[in-house]
Amino acid sequence: MASPQIDVDEIIETLVQIRQRGHSAHSVFRDWVNLMLFALQRRDDPYLEIVDDYRERGDMDHPDGQRSVDLFSKAFGQLQERMAATDADVLGAVYEEYGMSSDTFGQHFTPHRVCETMVEITGLVDKNDTEDRQSVCDPACGSGRMLLTAGRKQPDALFVGQDKDPLCARMTALNCCFLNLDAYIVQGDSLTVEFQRAWETSYSPMGGSVRELDDEGVEDLHGWMTDAHSVC
Q1: Do 72 and 94 form a contact (C-beta atoms < 8 A)?
Q2: Which residues are CB-contacts of 78 (< 8 A; sequence separation ≥ 6)?
Q3: DSSP 107-162
Q4: pLDDT, tens digit, 9 for 90 and up, residues 30-85
Q5: Which of 109, 150, 159, 214 has the highest count of CB atoms within 10 angstroms of its CB?
Q6: Structural domains of the chain ordered from first start
Q7: How far is residue 45's CA from residue 135's CA, in Å, rounded to a whole number?
């Protein structure tokens, strides 16, 4: 379940409106995440492919503001509002409350308070306590909750997250972008050092940005991470 301090009811209600039109919960949540990620990357073609899929299923019969694409945008705005108010993993909380958690795949995210405790015991120092740039890595990042918690304590660090679940990797990329962190997010199995896709999020005074790395970029990132781990 979502952490009690994070109210995600409005977002859930908006997504449920779309689901009630004959879509599965998984497809609605997946498409919402992908639409947000494509919009932030200004990738029009894959964005419109998702939108067109809903249009083909009678979505244009609904009035303006009630079409599925409008509701997806509304949920995005609601998410941004809750993120601005809490700096917490609102997206992960929606994932849990919406019923996306899975016993089969072990997809139950670490509670926020446990993340805070874990960040404390890792010895991550506050941003004013060191001149050296720190790195924070999570090899099974889920929605990126641990990285967000560390990011609030040391926003100038470099964050690296990896998860074999494609949806979780995308959620982490979104979260790192929302919190305006410098980060690399990898879709792949950290145990087998497998990289399938990767995203880079970057800090700027105007807000975070996100981009998907091309094949060469993924290969370079794989080499850098492998070398870094071998040194450790």
Answers
A1: no
A2: 10, 11, 14
A3: B-PPPHHHHHHHHHHHTPPPGGG-SSPPEEEETT-TTTHHHHHHHHH-TTSEEEEE
A4: 999 999 999 999 999 999 999 998 987 778 788 888 999 999 999 999 999 999 88
A5: 159
A6: 9-97 (no CATH), 112-231 (3.40.50)
A7: 34
Take residue 99 and report the two structure tokens written for it. Answer: 């019923």
pTM for this prediction: 0.88
Measure the CA–CA gap between 184 and 217, rounded to whole angstroms. 11
Q: Per-residue pLDDT for 105 more than 50?
A: no
Write down the pLDDT at residue 1: 39
Q: Are strands 182-187 and 158-163 parallel, antiparallel or unpaired?
A: parallel
How far apart are the C-alpha atoms of 142 and 163, rounded to whole Å?
A: 6
Q: Is 203 helix (H, G, I), strand (E, B) or coil?
A: coil
Integer angstrom CA distances of residue 178 from 114, 121, 144, 182, 223: 22, 25, 11, 11, 27
Contact 146, 118 (CB under 8 A): yes
Whether 120 and 152 have beta carbons less than 8 Å apart is answered as no
Looking at residue 231, its pLDDT comes to: 44
Task: Judge whether residue 127 has pLDDT over 70.
Answer: no
Q: What is the pLDDT of residues 162-185, one digit of tens each?
A: 999 999 999 999 999 999 999 999
Contact between 151 and 181 (Cβ < 8 Å)? yes
